[in-house]
Amino acid sequence: MNTREIRLVWEVATTGSVTQAAERVHMTQPSASAAIKVIEERMGFAIFSRENRRLVLTPKGRALLPELSNALTALASLDRLSEELRVDVASSIAIGCIAPAATTVLPFALTALKRSVPKARIVVHTALAVEIAAMVAEQRIDFGLVIGDTLPPEAGVADVALLRLHAVMRPDHVLASHASMAWHQLGQHPYVTLTRRLQVGSLVARRLEESGHAFNPVVEVTQFSSACGFALAGHGLAVLDNLSLPLAQSMGLVAIPIGPNDSVPFRLIWPKGRALSKHADAFALALRDALRSGFAPLPG
Description:
The protein is α/β, with parallel strands linked by helices. The protein folds into 3 domains: 81 residues, Winged helix-like DNA-binding domain superfamily/Winged helix DNA-binding domain (Arc Repressor Mutant, subunit A, Orthogonal Bundle), CATH 1.10.10.10; 103 residues, 3-Layer(aba) Sandwich (D-Maltodextrin-Binding Protein, domain 2), CATH 3.40.190.10; 102 residues, D-Maltodextrin-Binding Protein, domain 2 (3-Layer(aba) Sandwich). Helices cover 44% and strands 22% of the residues. It has 12 helices and 11 strands. Strands 3, 4, 5, 6, 7, 8, 9, 10 and 11 form a 9-stranded mixed sheet that branches. The chain has a two-stranded antiparallel sheet with strand order 1-2. Strand 7, helix 9 and strand 8 form a beta-alpha-beta unit. Helix 1 crosses helix 4. The radius of gyration is 24 Å and the shape is elongated. The N and C termini lie far apart (52 Å).
């Protein structure tokens, strides 16, 4: 399918109307109907069926939706990049960010980035690190903030900080008065952790197994906020990194560092060759400053 055909099929799928879809892609209704028929003949199967005077996707047509969405996103990104390269000014900045950073360090670090690109609109996509790495690889975002070693090939990378792991618990927990904690101690108590598909969860599993304990959390989650909630409800202590501590402490939870030097890397990644790549070093510096100053931007 060419660009216009992709957009036509997408608009028919979302509106259920050839007439409305034709208007959106600047075609006449008869031309749009004929184009749909040609596309279906070329594909070798029906994309739409008619139900109650509306066009709905067939099962095979529905299977096309994710790829149509990806194609349209890529086309929009290409149009935006072309315009930015033409005028050498970014109209928007797309950032993929893990949830803990999106609620802590990113809002403050963006202050410096916005000074460099004052007219740009900021769009933040909160996602898992592996999803953000894919967005960078496909050049769907300008910058990504990730934890761990899931890095796309040929991407720009700047190490921002090493994040230490902490056990987060209620003040009445038996370990709450400890200054630090070893992994063998943690393994003797109920705990909540991020899934081992994530960098923090994977490190927790490895350290517990090295200390002679099976990885057996009472609750396994994908979001740090959920881990804090379960810890607050008394299901056990939660294992989190530095970026998650502000939320935990705002909920009245106590944070105790684990192990001597157990940490995970916090990184800024970006697709090379984009107009905004020249701001990567300054953005990484702003992130480091925000972390060092407790998430508040430094003066100056």
